[in-house]
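note to self: dont lose this again. the chain is below, predicted strucutre after it. 142 aa total, dont forget to put it in the shared folder this time
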Amino acid sequence: MKKLAIAADHAGFEYKEFLKSQLKDKYEITDYGTHSLESVDYPDFVHPAATSVEQGENEMGILVCGSGQGVQLTANKHQGIRCALAWMPELAELARQHNNCNMVAIPARFIAKELALETVERFLNTDFEGGRHENRVNKISC
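---
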């Protein structure tokens, strides 16, 4: 069973809980918080989730905030993380196929829960194509 990290801020809390409920039978999920609608600082939850993916404790990660931008930017500060902001399944699929992304950021205030789930599932079920993309991905890190 694939191991996933999941984290959100207060704006993404309800989507995080929804995604967990829909994915729990297919994946082993570690929830890095937040655990309520109370206002929080997203880096406090994103950094531990990203570290777990970077260190191999989890294979992939799902992040959720209002726009998806804050969590995505924070995760991408980690050397071993490639986090894509995705609001539709096709973007998630391309992030995996062409960029070998290991985390996805979902913008809770801009898409329906069902579309968020479809986007996440596409991300989790798409493989990296390698080939011509491998060399490009290897040039991403500084």
